[in-house]
Give the backbone structure.
Amino acid sequence: MTSPEEIIAAAEAHSAHNYHPLPVVVATAEGAWMTDVAGRRYLDLLAGYSALNFGHGNRRLLDAARAQLERVTLTSRAFHHDRFADFCTQLAELCGMELVLPMNTGAEAVETAVKTARKWGYRVKGVPDGRAKIIVADNNFHGRTTTIVSFSTDPEARADFGPYTPGFAIVPYGDLAALEAAVDDDTVAVLLEPIQGEAGVLVPPPGYLAGVRALTRSRNVLFVADEIQSGLGRTGRTFACEHEGVVPDMYVLGKALGGGVLPVSAVVSSREVLGVFRPGEHGSTFGGNPLACAVALEVIAILRTGEFQQRATELGDHLHRELAPLVDSGAVDAVRGRGLWAGVDINPSRGDGRTVSERLLARGVLVKDTHGATIRIAPPLVISKEDLDWGLGRLREVLGV
Ligand SMILES: Cc1ncc(COP(=O)(O)O)c(C=O)c1O
């Protein structure tokens, strides 16, 4: 058998170094657990950046995928297929919206949202051609395409990738007055993560999302909520916007919509907004393919039961109760989050995010650092309370608490 070290060396020799993975080589996974090539088990506290909300190897999702694999997997949108209408109808219904535009990755869905908002701005709002402006927040993470990194404030994500796409204004996240000052007659959309995931699970101040909703409505500006990481059960609700009773004009969805089985993303909005597209103006060979629709339909059915939202609420309350004392102990500077989702800022006296992740790996727990000092805890929502407690025990151990 090839050793993990050999596999890692071969990966490093033959792949671009656009990631810095932890030194573990996963071979199989089930539920909240992964097993490496040597048979060692690890508790997954990352869940594929929330793509695996319903767990590894979820039976319902695998069965749906298997059944569809035997029927038809790809038609392209040149033809209709018999899962497409159901997928669009049911996703629109889940979102309380009217139309769906399916894509594959999250970044593609964000690009789609940007194109939709601009076209709506020109065709419906009446913004003069070429002047559409979209307001975003600092510390955002919406993906990696050239347009999306154009409005990133992370130097690592941006440097050397210019020239940058114009048409974006950046305001401080959570600052309603700054947002209000930035809105002008050319503004077509405000694009925000309801909770900023990659930034370290930053929850905006209470009232912010409701304030954004009121402001955008009064200025005829679209509120576009990127729920790619925050949505589909993670925070205890189907959408994180629900915590403030907010319904945006457009949801941008991805990650868990494909159940960790395959990439499925979508923009979901009203007829007024998504109705702006005509044939030939936007598309994707794989977007809305039968396999993707079959898996996503099962994801929607799972979400309809409310079971995982409930789990995320209950286990999330427990998680945050367990994490809070770490701040009092001095090992951790801050804990943020909502539902089964937490950003934990490690006090420098206990190491940085990467060293803590490596020490956890050695004890059989998988997490990933973000922005130096922070680790993110976002287990699959199927995790048992006992397993979560075991993982938190290992965290206390590596922090010396
Ligand atoms: C909020 C948000 N938007 C967009 C993306 C990009 O998704 P993808 O990596 O599928 O392109 C991510 C990925 O982490 C995300 O967290």
